[in-house]
Amino acid sequence: MNRFHLISATIIMSIVFAITAIPTYAQPDPPLANKEAETKAAEWYAKDQGIDVSEAMRRLQLMHAEGYLQAELEEKAKDIYAGLWVQHKPEFRIIAAFTRDGEKTIRPYIEKGPWANLVDVRIVRASLAELRAEQTIVQQIVDSLKVPFTAAINVKENRVEVYVTDIKFLGGTQLPPNTVVIEVSELPKPEAAQIWAGERINGCTTGFGVRDASGNKYITTAAHCSRDQSYNGTTLTWVGERRGGS
Asked: Residue 103: is it exposed, middle or buried by C-beta count within 10 angstroms (0-12/13-18/19+)?
């Protein structure tokens, strides 16, 4: 069964909706119903990564299943879970971050699954739940200053990032400990996100664009992609999850 995430291309502050966990994390998804689409995706990925198509197929199946693992960890280890992402180069690995007890926590989820020898554990300072709470606080603080900004969670760096066009706008404002301020030349304009299929985002790649009945534009990602995403300093709002195939 195919799964993908739907992310709004409209530039607004991050509003995170819960993803329903599917407890079949131990094995990859069955082959996609649409063989032509599966083959095209594998061919594109193989070319992008410099690998053969059969290896690309194997990796894509693993990445689909990784989405289930991510959902399970968010639900059952939320106090210490800090995020999970795919490393494509120099070696294909799945990186799982925890604030403590990472090896012990993840072992039951992977020891009998296809990722047993593919997962690397990293110990970091803040859990994903803590970063999300901190992002909310940061947005409230900066909003009160009437300063134009965007904010996003960088899971790989284990931090909240605030983007402004001039750091002096913040006037030395004290921000939470896991937050960094990044100065950019300009902030994205509402309804003007220039993002296309195949763009790199956090541990992932964007899929095809879609439009709803009201004309709102979105991009899709595979199910393995984190719901905390940004693109060039723009927070991409997670909207929902859809299933397809049979």
From this structure: exposed
